[in-house]
Write a structure and sequence with these properties.
Elements (H helix, E strand, L loop, with lengths): L3 E7 L3 H12 L6 E7 L6 H4 L8 E4 L5 H11 L4 E4 L4 E3 L3 H11 L5 E10 L2 E3 L13 H4 L11 E3 H7 L10 H10 L5 E12 L5 H4 L3 H14 L5 H24 L3 H13 L12
Helix pairs in contact: 7-9, 9-10, 10-11
Length: 283
Amino acid sequence: MPAVSVIIPTYNRAEMVREAIESVLAQSYADRELIVVDDGSTDGTEAAIASLIPQLTYVYQEHRGVSAARNRGASLARGEYLAFLDSDDLWLKDKLDRQMRFMESHPEALICYTDEIWIRRGVRVNPMKKHRKYSGMIFPHCLPLCIISPSSALFARGLLEEAGMFDETLAVCEDYDLWLRIAARYPVYLVDAPLIVKRGGHADQLSRSRTGQDRYRIAAIEKLLRGGLLTAGQRELAIKELLRKCSIYGNGCIKRGRCDEGERILAIAAAYSTPEAAKVEPI
């Protein structure tokens, strides 16, 4: 059985997914399997990667979204560790090797992630200060925005099973939701090197395809608050961030004439503004 199962979800990215696959096949770490889940592509993806299929497991499913594709891949995985690679991203050749050496030398670690190289429309750009990476109990840093790229994470498969799979009801920010659930309970370690290439700016980039991403982040935080996982301190931080996001997004909706949505979001904020809402027994 392989040590690492690599899962690539893809949808209508025939050219980009081939490059992503090749970056996995070029890894210096060889004890791995590769599973590509085609989420209903109609652009000839299977034909475009046909010459590579003998080196991987190719699965086709009806279009259900990236979370469903990742979860399908995880259900087929045989490895002790799981790693995901988005089909518009690339791995540097030592990515898996560096992370597996870290995990082997830190047996207490259940998950690690790496820094990133950002390419926008073919040009390298520098991440902003707010995208800084952290190591350890990083839950407070995960609340404002998603600082972990799914393409950079490597984790024990049991961790995903225990924390829960990717939420298939979220159109975007499904990774933000998962990292909150994990970071609330476990340390997340940083392998402090840029070992993946994130390619952005293309028209079908998921983070560009939905307006008002804070709507989905609000839903993720609210779900977390209802889940009973948080300590009193974590709950206080989560409510503070929820109120901030509700204010920005809710008032923005009203300003743009989307009054029903804005009032719905502001009602969520009101419900969590009471002293009773902040109370929780420490776990």
